Amino acid sequence: MPIAIGLEGSANKLGVGIILHPPTRDLTPPSPHDSAYSDDERSSQPSKGTPRSPPVQILANLRHTFNSPPGTGFLPKDTAAHHRRWVVRLVKQAMAQAHVQLEDIDCICFTRGPGMGGPLSSVAIAARTLSQLWDKPLVGVNHCVGHVEMGRAITGAENPVVLYVSGGNTQVIAYSAQRYRIFGEALDVAVGNCLDRFARVLNIPNDPAPGYNIEQLAKKGGIMLELPYAVKGMDVSFSGILARVEEMAAKMQQAETKNEPWLDVATQQPITPAELCFTLQETVFAMLVEITERAMAHVGANQVLIVGGVGCNERLQEMMGIMASERGGSVFATDERFCIDNGIMIAHAGLLAYKQGFSTALSDSGVTQRFRTDEVLINWRD
Amino acid sequence: MAATNLIGTAVVEVEHKLPLPFDESQESFELIAQGAESLLYRTTFSATGQPAALKVRPEKKWRHPTLDKRLTRARILAEARVLVKLSGEGIVASGSGNSGKRAKVKQPREGDHDVAGLKGFVPAVLALDWESGWMMTEWIEGRTVKKAVYDTKTDRNGDNTTEATEALKSLLACIGEVIGILHASGVIHGDLTTSNMMLRAQPSTPESIASPTSSLAGDIVLIDFGLSSQSVSEEDRAVDLYVLERAFGSTHPREEYLFPEVLKTYAESTRSGMHGKTGKLVLRKLEDVRMRGRKKSMLG
Fold first, then answer.
1. What is the mean pLDDT of chain B?
2. Using one digit for the tens of pLDDT, what is the confidence trace for A91-149?
3. Which one of A33, A139, A282, A292 has the fewest CB atoms closer than 10 angstroms to its CB?
4. What is the pLDDT of residues A163-221, one digit of tens each?
5. Chain B partners within 8 Å of A176 (Cβ)
6. pLDDT value at position B29?
7. Which CATH number does the domain A3-31+43-148+339-375 belong to among 3.30.420.40, 3.40.50.10380, 1.10.260.40, 3.60.15.10?
8. Termini Cα distance of chain B
9. Is there a shared CATH topology between the A3-31+43-148+339-375 domain and the A156-335 domain?
10. Among candidates A335, A310, A332, which has minimal Cα distance to A321?
């Protein structure tokens, strides 16, 4: 049975995952009278996904996150050092947890990109070393494709429009002719980066995640201030919004030091960090839902799948849910185990490619900071 | 809801309530199209009794109401401003008196050559109300260019005949001229496709189409300025052409080889506002835009 180990470290999370793909049965349903069909062959987990492909089994999914102090971001150098420090421990722990032997493993999957160069290469070195030590083939994986494939496997969404939102990427993706095509994307900074940087301005802790802490603060807010709104066709832009909301934060902090709180014109309520977080979230999420809706109208889809770290945000999921139901469709999202960067998605996407005969030669196993989602041939889908 | 017999291409059968004042109107409303942003109905303009197109931007419940109102207002106004600027018409009447929001759109200056050239090439704005989220324009009688091109194909067996090819060529030449005039007026359409171009049923200017006997005769009317913007940069103009080039290629693969006709007339025809040096610069920019290795493939 195909088993793969996946190593992810494109940003500040180091992830190691081990996945098992139960063998695909024939497409024709076996006859109940056929004695060759045994119940023992079924996976132990109840079948949730499509009836044709048995659900994948997650044998281990470990993650260790590098968090920098409030007010700062994670630097490539420190993040790479973090990954180097933890990767051996995480791999050992994952192997122990999965109860697999070296000979059970078919391939070593690792993130080739996109991401930060330093962290990517330190994890790639770990993957190459394992490949040499264990004499197993390497499989380089596109990080974005990993997110999309894991989201599909977990939720069972068959052919959704995918909104991939994280600290490094903002893309609206739909599948067509063996490629994940990018219909819309952020033209400058990613939405998660916009949120993270605003958290730094307000000195919001980075633990467990800046975006999570903004979400909690925003729940206490309710005043909608005016920010720029930058949707261009199916693309979005966040840098202007970030600049504006940073100005607002400066105004608020200045008012605080003078002890003359900045009051909202309409409600005469003081503007607090909660109100700024609320305004920022409502604005950027509205833009994301709008471009997703456009893509859905364009391709005639009514399923949406949200993946990536920002996809954990419950307000974003709620807004997307309302939009999808207005179009007679539904929204699929996963929890933080699969939304946030993880090793299992790299193992999963890598194993899908490996089963199609794909592997990465040692000499070609360099990482790349720029690796477009639509560069990957998705030959495991029709 | 006064609307009866809602026949539409809507994928999702969701009941849409018409905005004020149409929710109690006696006119009939036929749902023509549903996009991500808006619903398009065919109805009658009650002030004059003429057929009209009603574009409704329904409230987005997922968006914060303050933001939703702001965006709806800005988008309806932006679209109307472009149309009014291009058609050289003022607004006949503003939306029902209840909100009292009179649309203030300046009449274009007299003697503005480029603008005058587009009169009749875009639908005239009849009325709008940004509070309720709708805009009413003149109804263009005819078919889309997409349908017209498809029809020539089905008229003949297999390949287009010489006659049909010639007719298609002059149609494409016309499109090039109209886009040239549009760009010279400082407007970028933003979503040029053959579905966003109509062939007006009765030709009003006989010289506009080379062969009046052809089934492709009629004036080109550009519709749906929902994504339009005002710009005179070569880059924006080139991207506008590129969008059309891509859309044309994917919608009409058989006729794709004829597309250079559009670009040729865009830059060379004296009736195009872009003939001469500016047009040539835009076409050079278009080569850059193509060569940029288009990071996206927008294939449905």
1. 78
2. 999 999 999 999 999 999 999 999 999 999 999 999 999 999 999 999 999 999 999 99
3. A33
4. 999 999 999 999 988 999 988 889 889 999 999 999 999 999 999 999 999 999 999 99
5. 299-300
6. 87
7. 3.30.420.40
8. 35
9. yes
10. A332
Say how far apart CA B233 and CA B9 lie, in whole Å: 36
- Domain presence at residue B225: yes
- When CB atoms are compared, the residue of B36, B191, B297 closest to A374 is B297
B66 CB neighbours in chain A (<8 A) are 224
Structure tokens at A268: 């005469």
Is the pLDDT confidence value at B26 over 90? no
Which residue segment(s) compose the domain that B215 sits in? 142-291
Q: Is the ipTM of this complex over 0.90?
A: no
Q: Report the CATH fold assignment for A156-335.
A: Nucleotidyltransferase; domain 5 (3.30.420)
CA dist., res. A271 & res. A284, Å (int): 19
Q: What is the pLDDT of residue A53?
A: 65
Scanning every residue of chain B, which has its alpha carbon at the shortest distance from the alpha carbon of A279? Answer: B64
Task: Write out the E strands in A131-224.
Answer: 138-142, 161-165, 170-176, 179-185
Q: Could you count the other beta carbons within 10 Å of the beta carbon of residue B173?
A: 22
The count of residues in chain B is 300
Nearest-angstrom CA–CA distance, A320 and B152: 42
- Other CB atoms closer than 10 Å to residue B19's CB: what's the count? 19
Task: Compute the 3-state secondary structure of chain A and give helix, strand, coil in percent, each to the nearest 5.
Answer: 45, 20, 40
Would you state the pLDDT for residue A25? Answer: 58
Q: Whole-angstrom Cα distance, residue B107 to residue B87?
A: 10
Position B111 pLDDT exceeds 80: no
Minimal-distance CA residue of chain A relative to B13: A328
Cβ atoms of A213 and A201 within 8 Å: the answer is no
The three-class DSSP label of residue A67 is coil
